[in-house]
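Final report, closing paragraph on structural work. Over the funding period we assembled a curated collection of sequence-structure pairs, and we close with a single example.
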Amino acid sequence: MEELRRVVVADPIDAAALSRLCTGPCEVMDVSSDPSRLLGALPTAWALVVRSRTKVDRKLIAAAPALSLVARAGVGVDSVDMAAAAERGIRVVNAPAAATASVAELSMTFYLLLVRGLLPKVASTRAGRWERGTSGHELAGRTVGFVGYGRIAREIARRLGPFGATTIAFDPFVRSAVDTTELVSLEVLLARSDIVSVHAALTPENHHLLDARAFARMKPGAFVVNVARGALVDEAALLDAIGSGRVGGAALDVFEEEPPMNRALLEHPQVIATPHLGASTAEAQARAGSDVVDEVLRALRGDPLTAEVAPPGGSQ
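Its predicted structure, as stored:
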């Protein structure tokens, strides 16, 4: 009798998805509650299910000689050494649509908080003050500029329509919009946007895409929102730009270093900081687990994969 292939679950996923995986044609080894067991599980792992905690680097891949599939229960795959995986012929899949609604909703929350200037008002009221008077602006009539025009940006654009906001986007990999969003250059986006909203994937080429030079080109008083990857924004330059008044404020769900250590940025009254929770709703986590389990089961059956991530320089 042929031995069942082993699927190692390195990081916690949705319980219902894990139960469904256990019914598949495989042996499931769940070490998510005890990461110290992972190293011992790697030599016989045919597939590896991860989230953000486990970094699939060259060392890990070398310790897993039978590894054929890495399933990332999330969108970004920057925690996976894609070049090392490609060299070994290891396929990598993710859950590209799992968190779309959740991250779009968080982005919309940030826009409203920033434009209306609500957080300082919440803090002052809680402190016992009653500071009324004109506060902030309406989202209607504002221009939101997306740096990256993928699933999440398009979902936000759909939600912004009823608010009466205009959307523009910079994305060198997109030739035409699927909605009323206008595709523009990065320079034009920075000059026209009331909110610069970051949704790009992190690559070596776009590290610190928003730097001091970019902030200097922004519309004075515009806001920055980053729900993508921290290293896309130069945090020191952002803090300087907020201090000078060039940038009106920022909302950051992601940071260059996590947990972040830049107290000046975190404690600035014009900065909203959250702990990388854009995809952390119960619904998004359930979808992420379910979607990657679907992919693992397809791979086990030999069916075509639907969410395979192309290796560097490759195509799908």
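Residues 5-98+282-301 form a domain with the Rossmann fold fold (CATH 3.40.50.720). The chain is about 35% helix and 15% strand. We thank the funder for supporting this effort.
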